[in-house]
Q: What sequence folds into this?
């Protein structure tokens, strides 16, 4: 995570990055991000953290087709899933039905089901899997969802 993604994005893409996640609150020039991603055939992803509403992302919904909903604030692993993330997933799915939606943070077997039922396509989980006494079983449980 960086404060000025536009300043470093081309270097990452030149180094071979295939996806770029930019946080809405740090995005200053979406046209540049989209254009440079297209040039390098990389996938641009717009991230929305818990303090940002889907309404604030409205100007960018037509330009991005991949979104990340952070269901915790950026920081330490093991934070609790913010339940209002479900409303964001539902809202985003309703506004951009063809978008890919990734949910990251606080994902466990209970919240994974909620997120999936709300319309999430991709679930990211670290602490639930690697903090589990049986990481393989935890992973398989999420994979089944």
A:
């Amino acid at each position: 995570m960086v404060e000025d993604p536009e300043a470093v994005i081309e270097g990452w893409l030149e180094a071979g990055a295939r996806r770029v996640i930019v946080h809405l609150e740090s995005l200053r020039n979406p046209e540049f991000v989209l254009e440079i991603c297209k040039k390098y055939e990389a996938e641009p992803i717009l991230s929305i953290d818990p303090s940002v509403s889907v309404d604030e992302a409205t100007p960018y919904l037509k330009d991005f087709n991949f979104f990340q909903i952070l269901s915790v604030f950026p920081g330490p692993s093991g934070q609790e899933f913010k339940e209002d993330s479900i409303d964001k997933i539902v809202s985003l799915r309703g506004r951009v039905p063809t978008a890919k939606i990734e949910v990251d943070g606080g994902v466990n077997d209970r919240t994974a089901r909620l997120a999936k039922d709300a319309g999430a396509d991709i679930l990211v989980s670290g602490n639930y899997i690697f903090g589990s006494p049986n990481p393989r079983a935890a992973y398989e449980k999420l994979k089944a969802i």
User: Anything to note?
Assistant: The radius of gyration is 15 Å. The helical segments are 5-14, 30-39, 54-57, 85-95, 109-118, 127-130, 135-144. The first strand starts at residue 19 and ends at 23.
